[in-house]
Amino acid sequence: MSYLLGIDQSTQGTKAILFDPEGNILRRADAAHRQIVDKNGWVSHDPEEIYTNLLRAVRQVVEEAGIPREDIAALGISNQRETTLVWNRAGHPLANAVVWQCGRAENVARKLRHQADVIYEKTGLPLSPYFSACKMAWLKDHTDPDREACFGTMDSFLIYRLTGGEKYLTDYSNASRTQLLNLKTLEWDEELCQIFGIPKNCLPEIRDSNSCFGYTDFQGFLKHKIPILALLGDSHAALFGQGCHKKGMVKATYGTGSSIMMHIGETPVQSKAGLATSLAWSIDGKVEYVLEGNINYTGAVVTWLKEDMGLIKSAGETAALAQGANPADRTVLVPAFTGLSAPYWKQDAQALLTGMGRTTGRAEIVRAALDSIAFQVTDVLKAMEQDCGGQVRELRADGGPAANPYLMQFQSDMAQAAVYVAEREELSAIGAAYLAGITAGIYDRENLFGKMGYQKYTPIMPREERAEKYGRWKAAVGLVL
Domain range holding 54? Predict the structure, then answer.
């Protein structure tokens, strides 16, 4: 039998998932890593910890499944995007990775404001410390890299380490999020590299998402090396795993933050509504594009309720609390803890809790936190409708918070769209493993995606009530812009 391994290296941890020859999940292993937050609020990850966790998770999932190691045919990897690091040719990081959420490169973006139009025209991305180029420039200024240093995102670092330094590669989905890739030439852009001060020779080679990215035995764990046949940024992998392969299809991944993606076909569209244009993927030389809106705080809002506010002990409590909250309460939370991203791009915006009354309590604040997730996603969907001239009638959802029935029903009501929640939550790993299996000839693409089960939510809230709630949200956002 031929088994597939899928790795999802995400913001909170690393998942290793084993798939059988029919695409079913056999086993999953997770390894969380530290969120390193300093006094400035800067967020970092230890790359060595992440790599060690990856090896441990792979070992665990294979051993617990009890399958022969020689029956593993290939590996697919999805990764947290924009998180940026620099390492030497021996594979040793020169500093901790700068996490995608982290705004420490704001000064870099501020100094380059006069170049914002050029950058947007070439990359489809608004100038922001959110993207990797500003983070690379910051790392270059705060480390001591030599001319041979490697600047990359988590995917290229993992490929480098898994192949023992033989391969320094990335794929088009990840490259399109760095703000150094020209969307028209599909190459690292010399002018952009000069603007950000990053030498082109320090960047990885870009390949199709279903290329062979080298071979690995996970440092001797397997008896033979297996090919790495898929590499995708996590949101792109979820789009692929959701089966959103046609123009107009939309998915939202609810994780620490959220990525809302609309497949827009083979021609890029530059947003006029505050969204980003990226590559969905390049498969067998065929490039497809997406419009995307990214949100800093969605699932992280629930973490804030638990770890910072002490209002809940687990995420599972939130649905019942929200449903039991006072219907007349008007509390609104704008979770701009690290600024507001799409479609506002206001890095210096600050969080706001407004509209509280004497009866506002724990349940009402929890509900406001969940509502803020749906409001932010709705803002992005409206921007997509504005750019593409049509209504989003269907949204495919995945990620941990998508299991919250209150949130998904409220999302459907606010977006005025049917929401289909995938029964499987591991969509990023699924997308990467499925693409690897298709590339290896093990999976049939035409029959693979029909197995996906969904729970459907449809709008039920009266129009006037919806308009009143969304209007209060927009008014609250206006206070922080």
Answer: 3-234
